[in-house]
Amino acid sequence: MPKLNLTRRQFLKTSGASLFLAGLPLPGFTKDKPPGTISVIMLEGGMDGLAAVPPIGDPDLSRMRKGLIPDDYLKLNSLFALHPSFQYFGGLMAKNNASIVHATNFPYTLRSHFEGQNLMQGGGLSPFSESTGWLGRALDLAMLPGRSLSLDMPLLLRGTDKNDNFYPASVRSSSKLSTQLIDMISMAHSKEGASVFNKVSQKSTQKDSIVPRDPASLAKYAGKAMSQEGGPLSSVIKVTQFDTHASQGANENGYHGRQMTLIDDIIAGYREGLGDAWDRSIILTLTEFGRTVKINGTWGTDHGYGSAGLLAGGSITKSRVISEWPGLADRDLFQKRDVMSTIDYRSVCAACIENALGLDHDLIADKVFFTPKLPRVYDYIFS
Amino acid sequence: MNEQFRIAQKLGLMFRPEESLPEDIKSWAMKQLKAKSPALGVNNTQAKKIQVWPNKLQPDLLTRDNLYSEYKYNRQREEMDLAGYNSEAAKQDNEKKHLLLKTDQLKFSHRNVFGNDQVKLRFSSFWTNHFTTGNIWDNQNHIGHMMEEAILANLNNNFSEMLYKVTTHPSMLVYLDNCWSCGERSQTAIWAKQNGEQAGLNDNLGRELLELHTVSPSAKYTESDIRGAANTLAGWGIWPGRISDQSELLSIPQRHQKLLKMGGTINSWDFFKQDHAEPGNKKVLGKVIPAGKGGLRQLTDFLAAHEHTVKHISFKLAQHFVSDNPSKADTDFIANAWRKSNGNLDEIHSAVIERAIQSKEPKFQWPMTWLFQVIRLSDARFFKGWGQLNRYDNSIMESREIFEELGQGFWHERQPDGYSSDKKEWLSGEMFERRIRFSDAIYSAGRPKFKADDIMNRIDASVTTRSLVANVGMSEKSKFIALMCSPEIMGLENA
Hints:
The complex is a heterodimer. Chain A has 12 helices and 13 strands. Chain A is globular. By secondary structure, chain A is of the alpha/beta class. In chain A, the strands form 3 sheets. In chain A, strands 1, 2, 3, 6, 9, 10, 11, 12 and 13 form a 9-stranded mixed beta sheet that branches. Chain A has a two-stranded antiparallel ribbon with strand order 4-5. Chain A has a two-stranded parallel sheet with strand order 7-8. Chain B is mainly α. Chain B has helices spanning 3-11, 25-32, 61-79, 88-98, 101-114, 118-130, 140-151, 159-167, 170-175, 187-194, 204-213, 223-233, 240-244, 252-263, 295-304, 307-322, 328-341, 345-358, 367-378, 399-406, 429-446, 452-459, 463-471, 476-484, 487-490, and strands at 40-41, 51-52, 282-284, 287-289. Chain B has a two-stranded antiparallel sheet. In chain B, strands 3-4 form a two-stranded antiparallel ribbon. In chain B, β3 and β4 (287-289) form a beta hairpin. In chain B, α8 crosses α15 (295-304) and α16 (307-322) packs across α18. The interface between A and B is large, with 63 and 66 residues.
């Protein structure tokens, strides 16, 4: 077992956020140390990219979205601005440690949360076609099967059955687990039951510790774990409630604004926790789709297509807004309602894997995303 | 495991010690579909007598809405920093008196632990999950009511009736944002436009009605169909915050007056705001839906009978009750019963029972189902009594905590696709570790009356299970944990 001081009670799930850590090297599997770490902030529900990074220079924005444009945005360039919820992220951009990819998505246009989430995690060519996730497959390719910290195992991290998970139990009146008892139970099971109980047995030898509860502390905790020698190389934090059909709000105190503040807090938490390991880190957001350009009738937005991705970490040395902006005029919208996606976000994920795990782009394109001709966008992000 | 328990595990919650085992298990399971059982439970964990839940803890919808209004009313006063409302004690008292989450969760747990209608309860949980709602947007006083009155009360009805009752229930209309939606050409939207306000459609419930509750994406509906469904739904529902009012301090009669003006009723389960409704016909998957309140019933009836709905939900039923990998024959058998009976739930559920009995495939059980089965098998007292609802006891977990630790609960904030019945979603070290911990806790805190050997004799446990229990030593607790985590009790293998 790795020396890392990661134990079962170190994980948590509250305040709408969950943390998963993965890529803890297991004996016999680890090759050379990969060059960096990769962290994913999964935003469930469909983050509104136009709210996060409003294209204030687009003349159609105010026509389509009156009431959803924040007052105190941070101007990034003549076309784009940053929502005021992203105070910390904005600071990182100023330090050349963060970038934005805009008008992007996985190639999925049917607007179902569940198909979209399956694709954004599974990275397959069609919904529900893969039983493993793109990050799990990448960790497998890098020979880094490991553990995630969660009660369930997110599809994103599923790879070989060597992968495992942690989640801090708090079951009153239960005592310390007996390894001998678990081994007996494991032996009575066959197939998958035996394999899973065997993992429980391995974990039963680890000691308990206290874990933080809020998302920022969670990210700080994850960052700290990842900064340690032999620590996990990957982490995933899941934040829910981005499905803002009603009362979305324009500013940082609105419903969507508060969710975006959570993202900002998480990135700040990572920065603090990672310490010196920040320099080799990359953090990226992931969401299943963007939202309609036009505000709906209930001060919200419905399911859309193109969104924005936020990237942060010391691996980025020049901040940019990477976008082939399609425009918001009616003729430029996808099906006359959504932001067109002009950058395949799988390319962005592939670049982050390449940067963190040192894998070749062609290998990632072929074995992780099953798309040999997936464009390489590494240089746009990391050069 | 003998046939009685094998079937009770797949379709029910296991026989409690006081229940005699039926000789004809199929006939028993079919009769269970019609079983009538009030909510049963205990007053406290020491109580020997199982009783009917007190009426005062099972308020009707109007009372629930009024309680919530009172809660919001007091919260407004708290925010205004008024004396008598702003202390920590007053805050707690307000929650205790007016919010029903704790009560409803305990009642649900008691029903499942003590109920005489175990097969019916399992179907009820299946449909509660199919029609997922969650505790967002001031929804907590509604969820338990929907489970009892829209789902459990309609299990012997037609699917179309259940679909309509669920779709129009405030728990669903609030959870999926419909209570704010109004048609683009409605009087309200026109007025809003003229006055520089925002009002119009959101498609959240319209989309999920098609994707999750009925036809599924296999029907290849379009955005226009989704919009048609959303327009049909426009006008339905009232936000609990509105009942209590955001800006004014209103008495209950004043609030009722306001509701009557808006929807012609104070019943939030039949609340249709005509001035929010989209005029004119709508079209969904080729079906023309007329304008007005009655349009929704026509839409839900149409969707309930749609071939894609039949196939979609028949597969879900087979995967939940028959086998982890149901065969096409399993799904077809249920779908045929659906078609022949025009969606009669008794017939559909009978087909599920028939197929589950016939199939010798194991069926892995959800965490909450497994927990209830362990408690029933051993006759433990693991949940609080209703008389202990507001008393803190370090040795007894709250229902909320139990479901949180299990990673499954019907009051959790979660996505509308609900919990998966697919075994692989639940196979993780931590999920299994919980089963060990809960077995331990049930033994230690729940003081089960039946020991591992008694239970094994009663269920006629397999050689593998007996061997496992024999090998873990003489400790009764270890034997209990080993039994409850055996492949046989977890439904992982037909040992």
